[in-house]
Every structure is written in structure tokens, then in C-alpha cells.
Amino acid sequence: LLVMACGAITGKVLAQQGLPSEVEGELRQAKIPLNATAAYVQEVGSRAAWISINAKKPFNPASTMKLVTT
């Protein structure tokens, strides 16, 4: 969901304080607390993050994390 929502900002330098409203709405609908989520979106080659939510909070990775990192 986050990747799809962030697709609209590709090519723009945008620092966002929170998750896109569409993503927050989907998380609420799925009854996933916002404090139980983390997101870090950064353009390849950039030093600045577009979105950084709970980026320093430790979490156990979900199995889908393997798809993102490999």
C-alpha cells in the first residue's frame, strides 16, 4: 500500500510528516494501530527520506520484508 501511495510522489522532493492519508485509512480499516507500523521511503541515491515513520523503533520483520530487501 505504501509503495502504491508513494508512487504519486516519484520525481518530487517531498518530506512528509506522516503516512499518506490513503495508507492511514487502510491501516485503520484493517485495525492495525499506527504505532505498530513503520515506514521509510527514500529515493535511490538521495540522502533525504520522503517518509520516515517510526524508523528507529525496533520491530520484528514480517515475512514480506524479505521481498523488499532481496
Count the E strands: 2
Structural class: alpha+beta
| Helix and strand run | HHEEH
User: How many distinct helices?
Assistant: 3
Distance between the termini: 19 Å
Work out the strand percent.
5-15%
Shape: globular
Low-confidence stretches: 3-14
Integer average pLDDT: 75
How many strands, which pairing sense, and closed or not: the largest β-sheet? Answer: 2 strands, antiparallel
Helix content: 25-40%
Radius of gyration: 12 Å
- Order of strands, main sheet, comes to 1-2
How would you characterize the overall build of this protein?
- The protein has helices at 2-6, 21-29, 65-69; strands spanning 39-42, 49-53.
- It has a two-stranded antiparallel ribbon with strand order 1-2.
- The chain is an alpha+beta fold.
Topology:
Blueprint: H1 2-6, H2 21-29, E1 39-42, E2 49-53, H3 65-69
Antiparallel strand pairs: 1-2
What keyword list fits this structure?
disordered N terminus; 27% helix; 3 helices; globular; alpha+beta; 70 residues; 2 strands; two-stranded antiparallel sheet
Summarize the structure in short.
The chain is of the alpha+beta class and 70 residues long. The protein is built from three helices and two strands, in the order ααββα. A hairpin with a 6-residue loop joins strand 1 and strand 2.
